[in-house]
C-alpha cells in the first residue's frame, strides 16, 4: 500500500514501487543516440522490416520493391520532364515554336502523372497484402518464443513488463511497415529532384537538400522525446492498467463493491491518469514547438534558396529559362523531402519499437530451458538433494536445503503453514522450476539434463489456482491430454465420475458442449468448487505416473472432497504411480504413506501420521487444532 499523496489522500501505489525496469534504461540510451546513429537506424529498420516482409511473402515483397522503385523513377521522370517543359517554354524564340518544342516533354509529364496514379493504386494494394503478413509474422515469433519460456521467467517483473510493452509494440511496427514503400519512392524522388536542381546549377543541389534538414531534425527529436517519455512512464502505465483492470474486470467486481473501494480505485485511476497525461501534454507541447521551429527553419532555408536563384540570375550565373526549372525542382524536392521525412520519422519511431520487440523475443529465447539430454522415462524414484530455490529478485529462499525421496507406489502428503514452500516444492518435483542449488533427479537422472517438456509428459498437475479454460466443458477435461485415444469416451466419463464433475457437466444447459466462459455467447461460468472438480477431472484424464495435486479440494464441499481423496487413493492403489498431495485438510492425509512437514522452506519432519503424532511438533499441533475445531 502506498502513502498519503500530495493532497493528503491515500494513494495505492507509492513512488518506491515505480522502478523503471533495467531493459528500459538501456533502450533510453538508444533513443538518445546522436544524428549519425539515427541516420543508421532508419535504413536498419527498413532492412529488418523488409526481411520480415520477405519471410512473410517473397512474392508480395518483390512486387512491393518493384512498384515503389518504379513509382520513384516515374516521379523523377515526371520532374525532369516538367523542368524540360519550363526550359522550352521560357527559351528564346517565337511562342508557337516554343510550345511545339515543349510538347514531347509535356506528353512525358502527362504519361508520368497517369503512371503515378496507377502505381499509387498498385502500391496501396501491395501494402494491403504485405503489412498484415509482417504483423502476423511479428506476433507469431513473439508468441512462439513466449510459449517456450521457462516458468520462472514469469516470476520476474522485469520480464513481464517487457512482454507487455512488446505486445504493444506490434501496432507501431505495423505502422512502420506500412510506410517503408513510401519512404523508398520518396527517397528516389528526393534524389531525382536534387539531381535535377544540380543539373540546373551545382549550387542548387545542396540548397535543396539543406532546406529539408531542419524538418527532419525536428521530427526525429520529437520521436526521441516521445519514446524517452514512454520508457520513463512504463511503471506508471502498468499501474494504470492494473487499476483499470481492478475496476473493469468481472472477477473483481463483487469484492470492489463489497469493500466499497470503487471510489478509491477511481481516484487512484484519475491520479495516475493525470500524472501520465501531464507528461503526455508536456511531451506533445515540446514536440509541437520543435516541429514549428523545424518548419520555420526549413521555410527560411527554402526562401534562401529562392534568393540564391535570384542572385544567380542577377549575376548572370543562371539563364532565366533555367531559373523556372530551378524553382520547379526546388518545389518538387521540398514535397519529396516532406514525404520522406514523414516516412523516415515513422520508421525511426518504429525502429525503437522494433528494438524493444526484438529485445523481448531475444530475452524470451534466452529464458528457454537449454536443450538438455534425452527424454526421461516415467519416474520411479524422485529425489531432491540439497535443493534450495530462490524466486527471481528474492533474497530469502522459498526452499532451503531440502532433501526428499519419493518412490513409485507412494502417496506422499506435503503439509505446513501458509508460505512454508509446499507449492514451490511441488513445482520443483516435476521440473517446472529448476533448483537454484542442489539437484532434482528422476531415476537417478538430473532434471537439468533432461528434456523438460518430455518429463512433464509423465506429470499430472492439479494446480492450486487452476486455469478456467474458456473452452467447451468436455475440452476442459480433454485438454489434460488432447492426444489420448479414448474409445467410447470411457476415460473421459471415468475422470468426470471420479472428480464429481459429471454432475456439473450434466447440469449445464448444453451439457458437455457448453462453453465455460461468459466471454462467449451462450457460455456459462461455474462456481469455485465446480471449477475445482473440472480441474481434478483434467488431472485424472491426463493419466500420468506422477500425480501432483496442490490443494485439490480447497473449494470442495465435504462430499466432493471425500470423493476426490478416495479417487486419488484408488488411483495410487495400483502401486504404479507417485502421488503427491498438498493440503491443509489434515484429516485427509492420515492415510498417506508419508507426510512431509515444511516450516519456513525446510523439511522439519516426515513420517506416517502415527509417527508424527508420537513425535510431537508442528504436525501434531496443527492436527489437534483442526480436530478441536471439528469437535467444537
Ligand atoms: N512468484 C513468487 N515470487 C516471489 N516469492 C514467491 C513467489 N511465489 C511464492 N513466493 C514465496 O515463496 C514462499 C513459499 O511459497 P509457496 O507458495 O510455496 O507456499 P505454500 O506452502 O504453498 O503456501 P500456501 O499454503 O499458502 O499455499 C512464500 O514465502 C511466498 O511468499
From TrEMBL:
Superkingdom as given in the UniProt entry: Bacteria
Membrane topology listed for this record: Multi-pass membrane protein
Annotated Pfam families: ABC_tran (PF00005)
Location (main, coarse): membrane
Domain ABC transmembrane type-1 intervals: 62-338
Signal peptide extent: none
Localization terms from the record: Cell membrane
Entry keyword set: ATP-binding, Membrane, Nucleotide-binding, Transmembrane, Transmembrane helix
Domain ABC transporter: 382-625
GO molecular function: ABC-type transporter activity; ATP binding; ATP hydrolysis activity; ATPase-coupled lipid transmembrane transporter activity
SUPFAM superfamilies registered for this protein in UniProt: ABC transporter transmembrane region (SSF90123), P-loop containing nucleoside triphosphate hydrolases (SSF52540)
Keyword Nucleotide-binding among record annotations: yes
Annotated transmembrane regions: 60-81, 101-119, 179-201, 207-227, 296-320
A GO CC annotation given for this chain: plasma membrane
SMART domains, A to Z: AAA
PANTHER family: ATP-BINDING CASSETTE SUB-FAMILY B (PTHR24221), HAEMOLYSIN SECRETION ATP-BINDING PROTEIN (PTHR24221:SF646)
Protein name: ATP-binding cassette subfamily B protein
Organism: Actinomycetospora succinea
